[in-house]
Amino acid sequence: RQLRQEVRTPPLWTFSYDASDPIAGLLAERIALNARDAGLQLQPTKSASADLRLARITLPSDPVVALSVVAAMAGLPTPQIDHDSAEGLYSAERELLAKQKLIPLFHLPVVYATTPAVNGALPRQDATWDWSNIWLSRSQAGSDQR
């Protein structure tokens, strides 16, 4: 807000979102509302040509791979990562954010739950599922119904 007061008339920025994603539309409207409260003018648009872009990025569970995916999605060079320490990973993340081309809004973890009747339901390292190995146990499924 302090920086905003230094500008007489704030510029109108447009930001795009994926029109096929209904949650992205709701988030875009909420972001515009919060920006207005801070004195900024953001206009959500479905057009590909915009000043800013709202993107949903599914992160792999491996933090090193996740940083590389985020950098690629944002069109930024992959940061150099020291794999041996948490400090190295933190430094790489700070380096990526210091370019000021990426603003993480939130991280929503994906959680799955199954019943004892489901067998072979283990996610891969990249958090995707191998559906060919999942099967239902008839004895477990029948014992749950009383």
Structural account:
The protein is α/β, with parallel strands linked by helices and 146 residues long. Helix content is 32%, strand content 11%. The chain has helices at 22-37, 63-73, 86-98, 138-143; strands at residues 12-16, 41-45, 52-53, 118-119, 135-136. Helix 1 (22-37) links the parallel strand 1 and strand 2 (41-45). The longest helix is centred in the first third of the chain and has 16 residues, at 22-37. The radius of gyration is 21 Å and the shape is extended. The model has no long low-confidence stretch (mean pLDDT 83).
> Can you summarize the main beta sheet?
3 strands, parallel
| Largest sheet, spatial ordering of strands | 2-1-3
Protein structure class: alpha/beta
User: What percentage of residues falls in helices of 4 or more residues?
Assistant: 25-40%
Total E-strand runs: 5
Overall, the morphology is extended
Poorly predicted regions: none
Our count of helices gives: 4
**Strand residue percentage:** 5-15%
Radius of gyration, whole Å: 21 Å
Could you give the order of the helices and strands? EHEEHHEEH
Summarize model confidence as the mean pLDDT.
83
N-end to C-end Cα span:
61 Å
